[in-house]
């Protein structure tokens, strides 16, 4: 499906995938389109148009579920980031001048596209199927490991940063279970990345996608705590907070993933 989507878009990009950030976004959009079509086909053929396992059923769009995803994702990064800054583990340094709003909106668009790929792949139908067959714990565990391994190709990846990203994957899986919504997990993912890049002006998973205008933060404390050049999600401070939130979500989650709880 990814290959077919790439061929379909070939006339739009005759020179092939552009380098750098534009190319990364293009690839993300192609894979997102392919995964969306794959979800539609699978649900139509195997689930008789029942969208429960895919995480796109009617309740998945409930404002409460979406608000939970945004709040949990933003808070899971903002809290450790604020504590690290208050304790002197992060410091402010000057950056290139520029306008904040275009930077914030452009970064939001980038992360919306990049997060869509990962959420469809790791918290979409496959996640729902694993949870239905073997339970939510198995679904979260398997997808979190795969999620962490995917980031092994990012610049500066270390065993610790991948372990911390695995904690982020566990958190996103907990959001998916608590809400039954892949949309809520996607919003949580976008919020995590956007707060890191726009509020704290830090790299995200080792990637510096856009130059932050005015100022940025950099870690002055140990990398194992702050994440260093990997960003907040690569440090134990953020991983610890995300794990605590995950625990709370597991405790309060309704059982909405399996077949017995459809509509």
Question: What is the fold's blueprint, element by element?
Answer:
Elements (H helix, E strand, L loop, with lengths): L1 H7 L11 H27 L16 H24 L3 E5 L5 H24 L1 H10 L1 H15 L8 H21 L2 H18 L15 E5 L3 H4 L9 H17 L11
Antiparallel strand pairs: 1-2
Rg computed from alpha carbons, rounded to a whole number of angstroms? 18 Å
Beta-strand proportion: under 5%
What about the largest sheet? 2 strands, antiparallel
Cα distance, first to last residue?
30 Å
| 3D shape | globular
Going by helix content, strand content and strand pairing, the class is mainly alpha
Seen as an oligomer or otherwise, the chain set is: single chain
Number of domains: 2
Q: How many H/I helices?
A: 10
Secondary-structure element pattern, one letter each? HHHEHHHHHEHH
* Order of strands, widest sheet: 1-2
| Nearest-integer average pLDDT | 88
- Poorly predicted runs of 5 or more residues: 255-263
> How helix-rich are the residues, as a percent range?
55-70%
Number of strands: 2
Walkthrough of the structure:
By secondary structure, the protein is mostly helical. It has two domains: 1-49, no CATH class; 52-261, no CATH class. The chain has helices spanning 2-8, 20-46, 63-86, 100-123, 125-134, 136-150, 159-179, 182-199, 223-226, 236-252, and strands spanning 90-94, 215-219. Strands 1-2 form a two-stranded antiparallel sheet. It is globular, with a radius of gyration of 18 Å. It starts with a helix and ends in an 11-residue tail after the last helix.
